[in-house]
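Model it.
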Amino acid sequence: MAEKNNLKSILGVGFGIAVTIGGVIGSGILYNPGIITGLLKNHWLILLCWLLGGGYLLMAIGAYSELGTMIPKAGGPYNYAERAFGKYMGFLTGWFDFLVNSLAPAYISIAISEYLAILFPTLKGFETLIAISIVILFTVYHIGGVKNGDIFQKITSMVKVCVFTFLIIACFYYAGGKGSLFTHNTNSFDLNESGIYISVFKALQLIIGTYGGWNAACYFAEEFKNPGKELPKSLLFGVSIVIVIYLLFNAALLSVVPMDILSGSSLAASDAATVVFGKTGGTIFTLVAILSLTSILNAFIMVPSRILFGLSRSGHFISQGATINEKGSPYIAMIIICILEIIYIFSGSFSELFALGTFTVLIVDALAYASVIKLRKSEPQLPRPYKQKGYPLSSWFLILVVITLLTGFAIADYKSLLILLGIVAVSYPAFRMLRKK
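Modeled.
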């Protein structure tokens, strides 16, 4: 029998770590290292920027852990903004967050279908149909219960870590045998050169984007058995694993692929696989890509449904969106999202929406960091099972980083900025209309 408002509290740290890994390690780490190498052209500077991106995440974990354990509700950041700044800011944050996360399954499914067509040429021409079938299949699987998603996420994330570990070891082993560890990638850089700072900034934008999805566990806070302890552990361990894999993977790529080939390459991981494994490298890369995308798709089928569930429960969407089946799945929200994904896939209009993702994710993060400050002042009595380290300097630093990145994005992509401002302009009338209903 279906019911409303009761998600099952059955998840643990294992799922939290798995959804963090699954939500982060995707196509970005396979493609972006070459582009970043082209910007920086020095292996130590490249690894330093990846480490800086990881350091930003480790600081951000504190803010999300405090908020997620203090307000352990499904849907993540919109709950924090609503508690701190009122219903309208919760509405705006939630729909910004939903926009980004609901788009992900569409382009991930298309990417999987394209890779399948590479492995099996007879599938060429059927990519759209395959992508739609993948979305429907995963939706049906998740409607069957939250445990289904839990099991699949744990398995695929564990296999993904093993596969990336294998590739890293293979690259280092190959480089060690050739005696070429970093020897062909030792270009110098001049800190007095003005262009280097612009390059570093662009590289950090790509790196933070590649780390995107690191806070996925927060969307399931309500479904943890003990969110006060399990959510911070999930974020810390999950993000730490990702940072280590990313650093080692980039070092491995730099060890086997010469800088002139790696620089600007959009298939850096494929280049490395070809060097190490020869002609079979392309097939290995394709299989790794499919595995990575399947794991991240599983996570992003689950995340937007929790956002829509939370928005519906708070009165920011139709009340039916908060309906849960006996297996603990918000199935009405999942069906709505599945229909939306099919529209995205058919129309192909999601490319501009994807460009908005860099803006909206950062805005959502900024509101989360600001919520920590606001709630510390307005509701100091709220139980906080976890407190952000280094407060308030850490919160203000995170806000400063986000403002800096947003400024850079606005200069580089004013079209997306104008679209974003247009969404903000119509959001308040939409909010008032929904509140009246």
